[in-house]
Amino acid sequence: MYFFEDPQFGNRMITLMAAFVLVLQIAMVGQRWLVTNIRVFAAQSFLLAGIANTIAFFNHAPHLYVAAFLTCVLKGIVLPVLLERLVKRIDIGQEIAPIVNVPLSLLISGGLTTVGYVVAESFHHPEGAASPASLGRNTLAVAVSLFLIGFFMMISRRKAIMQVLALLSLENGLFLAAISLTYGMPLIVELGIFFDLLVAVMVLGILVYRIQETFDSMDVTKLSKLRG
Amino acid sequence: MLLLAILAIPLAAGALSFTARNRRGMEMINVGGFVALLLLAAVLATQVLRAGAVSMWDGFLAADSLSALVVLLTAFVALACSVYAVGYFREDERNHVFESDVLKPAAISSVRKYYSLTPLFVFAMLLVALANNLGVMWVAIEATTLASVFLISFYGRATSIEAAWKYTMIGGVGLSMALFGTILTYYSAHHVLETETLAGLNWSVLVVHASQFDKTTMKLAFILILLGYGTKAGIAPMHTWKPDAYSEAPVPVAAMLAAAVLNCALYGLIRFYVLTNRCLGPQFASQLLIIFGLLSVGVAVPFVLVQKSFRRLLAYSSIDHGGIMILGLGFGGALGALGMLLHLTFHSITKPLLFFCAGNVEQHQKTDLFRRAKGGVIHAMPVSGPIFLMATLAVTGTPPFSMFQSEFTILRAGFGGSYIGPAILLIVLLVAIFIGFLVHIARLVLGADPGLPPGDSCPWKKYSLICLAGLVLILGFWLPAPLFGLIQDAARVVGAQP
Lengths: 228, 498
Prior knowledge:
The structure holds 2 protein chains of 2 kinds.
Chain A: H1 7-30, H2 34-59, H3 63-90, H4 102-121, H5 132-135, H6 137-156, H7 160-182, H8 187-215
Helix pairs in contact in A: 1-2, 1-6, 2-3, 2-7, 3-8, 4-6, 6-7, 7-8
Chain B: H1 2-19, H2 23-51, E1 54-56, E2 61-63, H3 65-94, H4 107-130, H5 134-152, H6 158-193, H7 203-209, H8 215-233, H9 241-248, H10 251-280, H11 282-305, H12 310-331, H13 333-365, H14 377-380, H15 384-395, H16 402-416, H17 420-445, H18 459-477, H19 481-495
Antiparallel strand pairs in B: 1-2
């Protein structure tokens, strides 16, 4: 048996990559530049694909290879390229100017990660050692943290593109939760989700463009005419 | 085959409208398509009533009586809206709404956008009801959001782009919670079913084994689903997108959002509600549903009382009715489920009428603000005026109209299920909403003649209004036996105890 066929090794690799995913998410919170943020998101997606591949290899779940491939192509390449082109086209000021300042944001993200670990703990059944949750106890915690931090980014960022990016990273958290809990959703569902995601980014891209055109700004806090 | 035909018709209508040359062609394709759809939906309903659930492709698509009811209502609302839309957009064109700005696209491409996106929108809603797989259902609900974004930003005003943005973002966040809930449901079923195939998420499979699911996970899953699909249904406190979207979208789109999308979101919630009940017993879900239901009805009250615009008033009415339906589900039992589905049915038929009346008045007076609109609508618009008043009475649950019956049934379920406090609170809130609504609309419709030029000249708008009003009136006195049978059967699906 080669060392890379040892399940222990696989487990460690998954934990390592999950940790990097979390680090990238927090980097996204701390980042001030829009284009860098898009690239961080791309890197995160590649790592996710790596995790999916590892889980597919060790648990003989061939349909996960397809999901991993799609994650790579769609979230790692297509969506970041689309978003970067959008940023170039509307030629906006690159700084993010968050509503909550960066040090406080990082602190809150740290707190949310703790919450993620507490939530994930409740899914841990020591007696069911063969259950997928034992494989990715840390992974689930990271997934929940990504989800919560994604939420936080949505409400604490002004720029429309940043909110789109937050929504995408939130979805990354869900993908991670799905693969660490159940080796991923059935393939057709996964394909449907990818399709929705692609359409959603295109639709949001057009809307962002229209917002920029109409309001001469991407600051969504200016969208406040409709009340009551 | 029938299920496939039901899904194929709107897709084909959308594609044909996209390639059609002129407006007339698109109008005919839409109206014709939806007439055919309504007929097929009726065939499906009778078939389900007679021979039980229909399914195809190994249970990938399936229709029991609950799905058949939602399909029937969706098809009905789509047809009513498409007939009204013909008149509505012709009037828009006469008013030169599309040419007021150089940046805005010309009339034909705007109209094409409406006529080709609406069938797609309807297709997504039908898929919600017909998909057996809960994951596919989620994909379809997300697709309803995506298909309708550009229908909401239709007029391209700054405010309509704002509304579309809020709609997409709030909807996206909400649905991501629902997806998490779906994943957790899959996980809690995973141990029991030992399967990784598609069937592991099929509702018809899950419901059989639901009592063995992991209980902690299922609790968390239901909370997430309630928040997620509740956002889509516009349940408070996730309702904030609703008034914006309803007041900015063209009237036929707003009517479809209020009457059909609401059903789809609640349909998704019901499917998980049944699973949760089987797994955890009725108590857990009931409490949550009653809290959120009362909150929605309660939130609507102050906004109805001090409302400035009649389009937004309708949105708060829709939040209120969503809350009432959630309450019916929460009160539970056979009666609660029956009341909820009756309310769902009556609401889908009555609500478009109210929207069409509001649309007629808005197009005639060129404003939707009470402040700017001149009173005495009834003098210039002898058809829309009285029907507006009638629809208001119907929607606020005044007897003899049918929504009184369904609200009464829900209240009876509340008293019978020993939820006396919430039921009394519901009565008080409903009375407050009734007063607010009636004061606003009566002031708009009645009053001295302001001397406006006569309205109600477009036959499409006029007759769609009259037919729908006739239907609402008839339903107050007579509910056809097959339809009632379908609703009863669907209520058994919702309220069934293991």
